[in-house]
Amino acid sequence: MSRAKAHPALHLWKHRKDRQQTEEDATQGTMTTPITIKQLDPTDPIAIACLESYYTELAARFERGFDVSLSRDPEAQNMMPPLGAFFVAMSGGAALGCCGLKGDGSEVAEIKRLWVNPTARGMGLAQRLLAECEVAARGLGITVLRLDTNSALPEAERLYRKTGWTQIERFNDDPYPDLFFEKAVPVG
User: Fold this and answer.
1) What one-character DSSP code corresponds to residue 90?
2) How far is 154 from 35, CA to CA, in rounded Å?
3) What is the pTM of this model?
4) According to the UniProt entry, where is the signal peptide (predicted)?
């Protein structure tokens, strides 16, 4: 199985100097610019760069690598209103993490592609991104969220259990995940 493949738009990630400074600040625990969560089109160059970083990390952490073409990669339109949403955590022009809400028009949707840059971990960004997806889901009439993950990502499993997700049986045929979770969308 091949390693992650680079997306042709990866070179479009802007503000390299800002991204480097933000990563240095995060590493040193001295974040000087506020972190905001922005809803973006998943085909935006910033979103694509964030997703490519996620795929690269999966390729490094999964024993057999990761090839997005073999996964159940969501279509962009399923992560945009009126079906879903895509969020990116930003600071100083740099993307620090992302998370998608993949809907199909029903009351059940999936959380996809939750990732936080290693330099920004421990700052609560994953929980903030999940919370944004829950708010978006509620606004779209979604009542149940599902997600999948891989046991090679134990921090993800801990996060999901800590934030009220319940482990369920497999609900898809994606070859990479081996853990599956569900959560009722909290009523506003």
Assistant:
1) E
2) 25
3) 0.83
4) none
